[in-house]
Amino acid sequence: MGKLKRTYQEINKKIARKEAVVMTAEEVITLKEEQGIEKAAEMVDVVTTGTFGPMCSSGAFFNVGHSDPPIRMQKVWLNEVMAYAGLAAVDIYLGATQLSESERNDYGGAHVIEDFIKGKNIRLKALSGGTDCYPAREVEALISKETVNQAFMVNPRNAYQNYNVAVNQSAKKIYTYMGILLPDLGNANYSTSGQLSPLLNDPDLRTVGIGTRIFIGGTEGYVIWEGTQFSPKSIPILEKSTLVKRGATLAVIGDLKNMQPDFIQAAYFAGYGVSLYVGIGIPIPILDEDIMRSVSIKDEEIYTEILDYSCPHPEKPSLGWVNYAQLRSGQIEIKGKKVPTSSLSSYAKARIIAHTLKEWIAKGQFLLQEPIALFSSSKELHRLKSIKIY
Amino acid sequence: MIKKKAILRFDSSTVEKPITYYLIKKYNLWINILQAKFEPSLGGKLVIEIRGDKRQLDQAFAYLKEQNITVDFLEQEVSWNKIKCNHCGACVSICPVGALKINQQTYFLEFNFQDCVVCGYCADACPVQAIEIIF
Per-residue pLDDT tens for A104-139? Predict the structure, then answer.
């Protein structure tokens, strides 16, 4: 480690004076190449990252307010999409992937969230058995940003550190959460913003932990916990290589009422179901030269595994590794065959997010929050041991 | 030579006519069938690429009109909602003719309508329903 040492306090003082030097994780690549790690680390205080991809493990809590007479909601629907009501009387949680119970199979929780952010009215229906203190048994109402007490997004798993490439070796077209996969290696789909991706820029999670203030859906939010299926352990993927496999994830929170439709978008994957595009940006403070080394990583240096999604098991056959520069070029080679690639996450939007966060920080509107606690680096994933399975 | 893409719609009274034969034979047109869907007694739809000189094309379209066959040119049939589109590129690899590309500088999606054969794969692949095929 070099001699540079910077603290969160020093950086925040500079941000407050609007003197902080902020760059995006893309811009800093050129700077590092021109100036070297040491000089670049001295010059830059904060590097911003961004990602805009479909993140199924998302949803929102609502407190819709009490009716008169009051009801203890036991079953709730928002625009005919069922929400979870097993909480206090009028607290509910709506999951992004829950499908509408109407005839529309391309509308779900994500669309309700999108409509809510756009300021539209949402039709609520609630049922209850009725109690002495909550006598009402059925209520219908229109709710919106203006009428609910709280609406905050709580996403158990967002911002996957890295994600595999999906292909299909079978003879039949398949419909997956990684999009439509054409037969006989007809296409290859991936979903990460690579060199702009938050957790690929802080691979050892030195600055991203509980309490980190982030950009989420166009407003500010926080990292609240490790994400579900968090597996940050680095596993070497090839002998005699520095390449490693990592799978850290984040649980995040943000105020739904302040989010912007540009950065939260409902998605429907044909033949699969509903998901939610979530825009996330994380600022990384340049505390030392090692962090500068991490944030200046580029697409050519980030590898991901190609997996055959025609195999219906969790351990899918690997067809090798590619880097994000190859993927982003529009074509990769698998088993000697040229295969066109598609990204499911939007690099253009990831760029806009990193630039927006950069602007907020440069203008002194967004201070960095030092994590209250950092994450464990040794967690491993468990498989469900089923007693019965069909 | 002019190249046009068109959708020809047939009803129950026109579905039996060998229209493609007449277009080639009488008007000397090059016909490339891109898509065809017919229900023998009900009618159907033929998506074609036609090449020929202006005069002969005009005559051919007049002939189709006479035969009660509706002709719609394809430019209007694919609608790309640029505001809804988030430029992810999910449509790019599924396009059989390379009409959709992510610009390597801006990373925004570019749609070359000239190359589009209106197969509709992109509309299925778009996660945010920004592409629609209007038939």
Answer: 889 999 999 999 999 999 999 999 999 999 999 999
Which among A265, A148, A196 is positioned nearest to A29, based on CA atoms? A196
Q: Which residues of A touch B120 (CB under 8 A)?
A: none
Give the SS3 label for residue A352.
Answer: helix
Residue A2 neighbours by CB under 8 Å, 6+ apart = A37, A38, A41, A288, A289
Burial class of A59 by CB neighbour count within 10 A (0 to 12, 13 to 18, 19+): buried
Name the active-site residue from A17, A129, A133, A312: A133
- Alpha-carbon span A283 to A212, nearest angstrom: 9
C-beta of residue B23 within 8 angstroms of C-beta of residue B50: yes
- pLDDT category at A1 given cuts 50, 70, 90 is low
Q: Each residue of A180-230: pLDDT tens digit?
A: 999 999 999 999 999 999 999 999 999 999 999 999 999 999 999 999 999
Tell me the C-alpha distance between A271 and A264, whole Å.
Answer: 22
Mutate to test the interface with A, among B91, B93, B102, B119 (most CBs of A within 10 A): B93
Name the percent of chain A lying above pLDDT 70: 97
Q: What is the pLDDT of residues B41-56, one digit of tens each?
A: 888 999 998 888 878 8
B104: nearest CA in chain A?
A329
Q: What is the full DSSP assignment across B5-53?
A: EEEEEEETTTTTS-HHHHHHHHH--EEEEEEEEEETTTEEEEEEEEEE-
pLDDT at A21 over 90: yes
Q: How far is B59 from chain A (nearest CA, A)?
A: 41
A56 has catalytic annotation: no
Nearest C-alpha neighbor of A279 from the set A342, A226, A356:
A356
What DSSP designation does B73 have? Answer: E
Domains of chain B: 2-76 (3.30.70.260), 77-135 (3.30.70.20)
Question: pLDDT above 90 covers what percent of chain A?
Answer: 89
User: Are B9 and B72 contacting, i.e. CB atoms less than 8 angstroms apart?
Assistant: yes
Pairwise CA distance, residues A89 & A71, whole Å: 7
Provide, as residue numbers in chain A, all residues whose Cβ is less than 8 Å from the Cβ of B105.
none
A210 burial via Cβ count (<10 Å: 0-12, 13-18, 19+): middle
pTM of the model: 0.86
